[in-house]
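Why do we care about 3D structure at all? Because function follows from shape, and shape follows, mostly, from sequence. That is the central idea of this module. The next example makes it concrete: a single protein chain, its amino acid sequence, and then its structure expressed as tokens.
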Amino acid sequence: MKPAFLTLGGGPRVEVMDNQHLGSLLGALDPLRHGEAAVLERGPADFIKARRHGALWSVTTRRAGMWSAQSFTAAMTSDYGERAAQEGRHHRWFGWLRWWLRSPRPERALSTGQVRTLFGEYLAGQRFTIPFAGAGT
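And the structure:
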């Protein structure tokens, strides 16, 4: 496999040796601010990129051989469902409706833990455990 390089925000580009090394480097995800990105790449057409949106993330990937980049969705994940249920319980019906209308789209609602999982799966060349946006069940 080609070497992979990680860039966090505007920081330096660092070669990633293995999943353990990646895990230690991804400890620096938390300080990234809204709009900043983390990119793990093996080339311009082989990458995974996470962009921060407040406390949540959006993630896109493109692997060698894919025609275009695809984004992930949190919609069918237990993490997203649990978070939505907890936040929804705090609102009465009209408040819940307003909260639901203002909540981030599932494509922009991945947790930091899910970002770490996806980056690890990309580095290992594994099948992704989080669904792509628009994918049928």
